[in-house]
Specification:
By secondary structure, this protein is mainly α. It has helices spanning 2-41, 44-52, 56-81, 90-106, 113-125, 128-157, 167-185, 187-199, 203-217, 223-250, 257-271, 282-292, 298-316, 318-337, and strands at 160-161, 164-165.
Length: 338
């Protein structure tokens, strides 16, 4: 009987792993198809000519801005972890942030970067629910700042796309964001979910819901921490816009800031769609679609997208060192303790 149970568990694990590989493969195919279509329509010779004359100092500035933005993001995470009772040193959050970036780009087949950050934080704090809550709130405040930057810029600049004002869909996205956050922190949805789990006699889920509600409830009295996190998020997204402006200058382009303040956040949102690897293909199509409306050529728009991707890849490389010096050691130590 025990052998049968173990055999079923192993089979289920293998099937889950197989489905995960199929999803990864499907995303890779979609990315390859989208990029193939884009490069097929582009003048590769022209792109190589533009790259040959690129100003490296602006690209290095873009790289520095992105790394600086990640350091700010790690500080934001530390600020958001404090209301949950986590008091790790800032350097530890920096290391975990770069570790998550490394997993996002170089080890995508097993687990995502956010899950990696939550995993290692949970290993250190012995509280997986609060660790996950801190990572979620880190993303959550970042998304709120992203929508705020795009909405304000679209309203001030009265920007349109396809003869339609962009402020309308952005306002709808912002309202949806606020509604979902209200549902997350309100008591009524939690009570309904708890009753549902209790009726189904899934007591572990009831306990999990209680712990999650308690964790998110800690932010109700942490308005100062949320305000600091939002401010850091706004600064991060301005640096993200700045790095794209620097990349444009590297290619010899001079773009207005207001369109960048709208298009870059929208492209960031579209890149989060879980249909491609790392947003490859979706991001490049979005660049070509939006920036061609500003008169930027298809080739230059595609290069802008690829430079952004290259910046993020290069900035994630320190995560490899973190994984070697900290990640494996932490994992081995936690396994020994358990």
């Amino acid at each position: 009987m025990e052998r049968e149970i173990v055999s079923r568990a192993v089979s289920a694990k293998r099937r889950a792993r197989g489905r995960r590989w199929w999803r990864i493969g499907a995303k890779g195919v979609v990315s390859a198809l989208l990029l193939g279509l884009l490069f097929r329509r582009a003048d590769l010779g022209r792109m190589l000519g533009v790259l040959a004359g690129a100003h490296m100092e602006f690209f290095l500035l873009a790289l520095a801005l992105y790394i600086g933005g990640q350091l700010l993001s790690a500080l934001r995470w530390k600020v958001l972890a404090a209301p949950l009772g986590f008091s790790l040193a800032y350097g530890r959050f920096v290391g975990l942030y770069f570790l998550g970036m490394f997993f996002n780009f170089f080890l995508p087949t097993v687990i995502g970067g956010d899950a990696v950050k939550a995993y290692y934080l949970a290993r250190e704090t012995r509280d997986a629910v609060r660790a996950l809550a801190s990572v979620f709130m880190d993303r959550n405040t970042g998304l709120g700042a992203l929508l705020l930057v795009a909405l304000v810029a679209a309203a001030v600049g009265r920007l349109e796309f396809a003869d339609r004002p962009l402020v309308i869909p952005l306002l709808g996205a912002a309202l949806l964001y606020l509604l979902l956050n209200f549902a997350l922190f309100a008591d009524a949805p939690y009570r309904g979910l708890r009753k549902l789990f209790a009726a189904a006699r899934t007591m572990p889920l009831v306990a999990l819901a209680d712990r999650a509600h308690e964790a998110f409830g800690a932010y109700r009295s942490a308005s100062l921490a949320l305000g600091k996190a939002l401010g850091l998020s706004l600064l991060f997204h301005l640096m993200l816009i700045g790095l794209n402006y620097a990349n444009a200058r590297a290619l010899g382009l001079t773009l207005d800031i207001l369109p960048l303040c709208v298009f870059v956040p929208i492209i960031s949102l579209l890149s989060m769609l879980p249909i491609t690897m790392y947003g490859l293909g979706v991001r490049e199509y979005a660049f070509v679609l939006f920036f061609s409306s500003l008169g930027v050529t298809r080739e230059a728009s595609l290069l802008l997208a690829l430079l952004w991707f290259l910046v993020t890849v290069l900035a994630s490389l320190p995560g490899a060192l973190v994984y070697i010096t900290y990640g494996r050691h932490s994992l081995a130590e936690s396994n020994f303790r358990s």
